[in-house]
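Much of what follows relies on a compact textual record of a protein's fold. A record is reproduced here so that you can trace the correspondence yourselves:
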Amino acid sequence: MNRIFIFIAFVLIYPQGIKAQFEGLLSSEIRIKLLNTGFLSEANFKPDAPLSLMPDHKALLQIVSQTRKELSPGVIVEGLAFCPKSKAAAGRWDAKEKTALFNAALSLSTLAGIRYYSPSRNQTRLFYKTSTVIDSLESQNPVRDPVFTESKLPYSFLIYAKQEDLTFGENLYQYEYKNYEDAIIFSQTNLTPMRYGVLPVLGEKKLRTIITVIDIENYLLLYMVSMADATMFPGIKSRINQSFSSRSEAVLKWFIAKANAIYSK
């Protein structure tokens, strides 16, 4: 019911061209499904499986293609969502808006406490118990989330973080940010081996998550893909599928909440 109400609100705010905003980026079928539900998710377990939800964006295609070559992932989970801008922010983003969104993506400490729905437990569950940017992999001292001004917004930026979630425990991650004219793309790579309970499932740098924020005038289009070269024990495939799908929705909701706060000012 909430998603239906939100969709109707979108139509009232921007009654003309709502589907046209996504043309050239998404197929007609995916556009219709996205506008009807607000969030889409797909999972594949073949390294060469087509990515049905990925927007047709040159920089994103290149990054994902290179990552697939490096990983040859056995697990690929996609998530797709969108966020309407305020009327005041309608049109292509300006430097102030883009900088605010870039800083929102950098605010990794605010991931602590977000929740996701766990199908296996049939209840919402804490995702990140802690999430902290650190100064280096050696000392691992906690530091504040980076913040940039409009004049200092970088094209590329790299940070490290220590994050603990209830599924894979505490791990170190690398976050890399790319700043394009019409998009912000940031990726997460695990720097420590990861376990699912007591089972080792992911080696170092075997999990990559890429999040893309594309400016399409009256909306932000958000795409997330997690790719893993994971050890598949009997019965674990469906759990990883369900977990990653729910977790991708939680992360996209986190960023949408950040964007909504920016547009409400």
The first strand starts at residue 39 and ends at 44. The chain has one domain: 2-263. Residues 1-16 have pLDDT under 50 and may be disordered.
